[in-house]
Amino acid sequence: MCLALPARVVSIEADDMATVALEGVRKKISLALVDEVAVGDYVLVHVGYALHKVSEEEAARTLAMMAEAGVLADELEEIGRADA
Amino acid sequence: MKYIDEFRQRDLAEKVAGAIVREARSGRDYHFMEFCGGHTHAIFRYGVQDLMPPNVRFVHGPGCPVCVLPVRRLDDAVELAERHGVILTTYGDMMRVPGTKQRSLIKAKADGADIRMVYSTQDALKIARENPKRQVVFFAIGFETTTPPTAVALVQARREGLRNFSVFCNHVLTPAAIQHILQSPEVRDLGTVKIDGFLGPSHVSSVIGSEPYEFFSEEFQKPVVIAGFEPLDVMQSTLMLIRQINEGRHEVENEYTRVVKREGNLKAQALVSDVFELRPRFEWRGLGSVPYSALRIRSEFADLDAETRFELSEKASREVKSCECPAILRGAKKPTDCKLFGTVCTPDNPMGSCMVSSEGACAAYWTYGRFRTRDGRTAGKEEIVA
Ligand code: SF4
């Protein structure tokens, strides 16, 4: 029920409708709930509607944050080793 | 797939897991309630619990819309299809949920009722256009994510003058349910359900934003981290919760920034408030009657409200007696505490809603976690409980 997937907009049509691509599958969805979506944007698709745009920069930032958790670990390990 | 595969990478998961093990203090426990069934599903499917140290635990919450719908409303939907002879359209998840005397929509359909599964409210409108002589009802359920699509359908039906279309509205609100859990005696007085923080809803928050949770973190002094539904999102958010607790903070933080903004989706919110208003009370399975926790169709759209259009009879609705769904939805019990789990009740023959939806805790335990100990860890041979 709460399944929603990020999909790429491949074309925008009349009446707030659009076609999105998801792993080779194409689907018609409604853009009635979002503003200023362009071809090439990623949107979160839920029960046939785009709920929100997906931000490329924010996705990259989150991944960097996750990687950082580990970097810190490596550093701590090094400090630990230096102490020993 | 973009935005999915990156958030399932093994090496990153190991890094985040390592940070959690290091930062979780051994002198204390961390109990985090994941409100959403989507998180429950991810935690089980990807074995996230097994990557956590023993003192970091997930408590499963009531955030599965199929699971929290009271039997009475399901019986009403069956009545709409059987007695009023409408074409009842609904999302696939609802079809197999057992109502009173195990009567589900799929059984009613097998007995001849015209019940049709739709992917989107657009499909329901299409069925109404194609069947002008029949009444078509959309059985609407779900949290803030599925509400805007229902609102779009109502506005569109009005604009097109589609007189044979109506909506049976069962939309419910997440913040009201979280507040209810925090005020419940199990959490507040008895301490039988321990909650130190929340993994906040992902997709619900894309619509309502992170702002509505600020009240809880303030009022109940519990940290909330809005978490995406991929396994790495869940882990990173757990780390953020641990850090808040270690630092004595209780704030709303947002891990799922690629989709969630503080203010949410204003266009969707405006549309929802044009069409819906608060119900003073609504019954939730497991939580009982919760004030201002659901929406009903505004009087301006009353002609498109199935509850106005059709007279629904009083009925004595009843769940299967030994089904523990209500306690499981409150976080007070685990699926393996239910006598029927895995014996009488399986996904092929569900006795309760929590076994039907893939977001339900019983279905998640059955599919991914049957061989676990009572405290949720993967069981050794001798310890298997179900
Ligand atoms: S196992 Fe089945 S009967 Fe038991 S609580 Fe879960 S859904 Fe209800």
Helices and strands, with pairings:
The complex is a heterodimer of chains A (84) and B (386).
Chain A: E1 5-12, E2 17-22, E3 25-30, E4 42-46, E5 49-53, H1 56-83
Antiparallel strand pairs in A: 1-2, 1-4, 2-3, 4-5
Chain B: H1 10-23, E1 30-36, H2 37-45, E2 56-63, H3 65-68, H4 71-82, E3 87-91, H5 105-110, E4 115-118, H6 121-130, E5 136-142, H7 147-160, E6 165-171, H8 174-183, H9 185-188, E7 197-200, H10 203-208, H11 214-219, E8 224-226, H12 231-246, E9 252-254, H13 266-275, E10 276-284, E11 288-297, H14 306-309, H15 325-329, H16 361-368
Parallel strand pairs in B: 1-2, 1-7, 3-4, 3-5, 5-6, 7-8, 8-9
Antiparallel strand pairs in B: 10-11
Helix pairs in contact in B: 1-12, 2-16, 6-7, 7-13
The structure holds iron/sulfur cluster.
Iron/sulfur cluster (SF4) is lined by residues 320, 323-325, 328, 335, 338, 340-341, 345, 351-352, 354-355, 362 of chain B.
Structure summarized in a few sentences:
With 84 residues, chain A is α+β, with helices and mostly antiparallel strands. Chain A has one helix spanning 56-83, and strands spanning 5-12, 17-22, 25-30, 42-46, 49-53.
